[in-house]
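Hi R.,

As promised, here are both runs. First protein below:
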Amino acid sequence: MSIDISDIAPLNLNIGSGGLTGAKHASAVAFADQLDLASNITFAAETYRDYTSLAAVATDFLKSSEIYQIASRWFTNCTGQPAFSIYMKNSSATPADNMTGFLHQKYRYFQLFKNGDLTRETIPGLAALCESERRGLPLNLTAADVVAAGTDDLGTLVHDLQYRHVFPAYRSAATIAQDAGQAYAHYATMATFSKFDPAGANTAIDTEYQGLSGIMPDNLSTTAVNLLKKKGIAYFSRVASSGEESECLPLNTWSTSPNQEAIDDVFNIDVLGNYLQNAGFNYLKGSGRKRALTVQGFSGYISAITTVLKQFNTNGVLGEGNITHPSTGETVYLQNGFLILNDETEVLSLTAAQRHARQYPSLNIIVLLARSGRVAPINLNVE
């Protein structure tokens, strides 16, 4: 069996001197209000602070506040060194404007908003921003009509946005009534990505099988579960087998991608893309000047990119399998989960105008994701 290359929309990446960082993707920013602050604490609007523990958050914020509940879900399920920031919102700005304000200050992948900030009026703009900036937007949907038949509920609206970077989940009112912090369960799901070490071996995760600490399962009917599956919305449950029950797990963990990508598909491609950009830039600037437009120079560029792709095979993001070659239509076996379609001699075919502009050939790559078997075309361009 071979897999067609249309599984995921092409990822177009640019390599340039501006804004390239080794981003920490297992990271989050939560957006706070002044009313969340503990007594006598000052926190200026449109600024942020980094926190490395829940105890540190409790120093600045009320334990009864929603921002503390959000932080609790994150820190309880985060391993290693947490990368967590809190941004004090401008109370008169939209969620998208507040996110933009933080984007200009620091990189954090997951954008954690209070449920009250996420409405049918605000979600579309925020989702579009996350899509364009490649940031993850987990949503905790709590309205009862999300698990009812119909097409006018918030869950359907979110599903129909068809964005890769929107990750919806449902929480029932009955569960939240027992513990208000349960309203932010999906933020715990996002925290489990901290287990993934891109430099390690077999550390990539599937969000579908991550046991969550401090999260209660919802008591959902079969009808409700089937509706959530139809709408592509995650839910939280235990799995019973031979009389034994698992920890509470997030299930049906899809993004709202039109290509039916799971959350980890989207996350892993974003991490890989960042590593490819950095490797390409570091190679091109390695000699103190842009590499020459020669076979040797382009071969070294391909080699630097190949090293990253092999690393992502080792860490478990990419895996072996067959694909259909986009040019020949033949079945090709990918031992390490990737195929670079370029040849180092392509640099000799550049036009005079391209050479005068010092334009490197675009690198065309196909990667095969180990967990889903999905194929992603990646186009790497040098600015």
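And here is the second one, sequence first, then its structure tokens:
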Amino acid sequence: IFILFPHGKVSPVQQRQMTTSNAANVHALSVEGNFDDCQGLVKDMFNDHAFRDRVSLSGVNSINWARIMAQIVYYFSSALSLGAPD
């Protein structure tokens, strides 16, 4: 898992959330530039089909169906925990 974030453009809390994982397969990389520059790098990697296929690249962002499906679980769990109306 590689996380790209703009250097100096996230809050200290956000940076700690991204950079303090103890998992060996999680790598947070700060990028000179802004969020759009990070997105541009990711887009370029996805558009390089040989690279994408060689490293089995996949993305998790707001339009990825797997992320949306996982969020649905959180929404229903939260609603039930808070006593959602019938």
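A quick note on the second one: The helical segments are 12-19, 35-47, 49-54, 65-81. Let me know what you think.

Best,
J.
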